[in-house]
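Q: What does the predicted 3D structure of Signal recognition particle receptor FtsY look like?
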Amino acid sequence: MSWYKKIFRKEEKESLDKGLEKSSQGFFDKISKAVVGKSKVDDEVLDDLEEVLIASDVGASTTIKIIDRIEKRVARDKFVGTDELDVILREEITGLLLDNPHAQTGNVDDTKKPYVIMVVGVNGVGKTTTIGKLAHQFKSEGKKVVLGAADTFRAAATEQLTIWSERVGVPIVKQNMGSDPASVAFDTVQSAVANNADVVIIDTAGRLHNKVNLMNELSKIKRVMQKVIVDAPHEILLVLDGSTGQNAFEQAKQFTAATEVNALAVTKLDGTAKGGVVIGISEEFQIPVKYIGVGEKMTDLQLFNPAEFVDSFFKKR
């Protein structure tokens, strides 16, 4: 078993390296231009580096913290060459992410049965695909999974989730289009309890309407589920599209204001050079990035590991 895990870990790391290839290449291209003809990390280089980090979608707040850490290091070490900048950046960004007291560990809490995950996010971010891949991973671990199609405002949403349930081989609870989403959530949780399921994954509508309506809708779904399981949902997972860069920050602000998001999934990192958004979102919102999507395969939705992410991000091609 340990031998298998080592091989799986290696494959997972290779997927992460490949998925962040565009982000890494774009980042190093910008860094190279910023330090060309310079040998020492000085104020000018740090100003250029700040621009590179912001242009790489790391976000202004997180960029300031990274630059501050590097400034302190430069002041301490007196002379720091530009040839050391890659290593220093890697170490300081890793340190910043690992210093986050909300850094994610583990997958689901096995003491909660069934463990209820409510998935939120706007349409088009990869929400349904994320749910399908999660269901596959949980089932591969030997867990009994039930899906709930509580996005009843789009027929396509229920159809897509049904296709994933059939593909993965897990049951789905659904109702007619236009049904009350809270009713679907209630039926799903009730079915999961009756069938001794381990994990429940509830899809919700991806409309980013005004915050009051969104809050009311999600709050109602939570209240109804709590009639069956008092502390449900155990996880409110916000799915963000990494390829949208700063727009992902805005969505995170909207949804964290509307409901008690306690986990994030950042998808579509393989198709973009905006992987830096994971660093900013992880640090700025103090909500753990739990999953990252780095490819199309079922196994390309990975548990986020800050150290490994930064290692892949800084891997020169």
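A (community wiki): The structure tokens above were generated from the sequence. The beta strands are 115-120, 145-149, 172-173, 199-203, 235-241, 263-267, 289-293, 301-303. The chain has two domains: 2-98, 115-305.
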